[in-house]
Design brief:
Low-confidence stretches: none
Mean pLDDT: 76
Radius of gyration: 33 Å
Number of strands: 0
Structural class: mainly alpha
Strand content: under 5%
Distance between the termini: 82 Å
Shape: elongated
Amino acid sequence: MSHFPKKRCSIAVLTLAVPLAFAQTNSPPVKPEIKGASESTTLVEYKSTFTNYRSFVDQPTVSWREANDTVAKTGGWRAYAKESQQPEPEQSPASSNGAKQ
């Protein structure tokens, strides 16, 4: 049995491992300098995604006849089609992103 495959494998491992060992550095990362900025320039405000979260609330169930009658009173599918064709009411940027005024 030949030891040639083992030698090739060990040479390949050393060929890949040695450069990686020398590529590691012990110096701390360099902080980039920003012109005109000081340490207290920017204040970040944290707002949780869950601030305006509304949990699920069970709605009362109605009979199918009652649901159909309600849809018929509102105009059926035609009323929903008209509603979908109406332009969206414009909102101010402050109210659309949930910012407090």
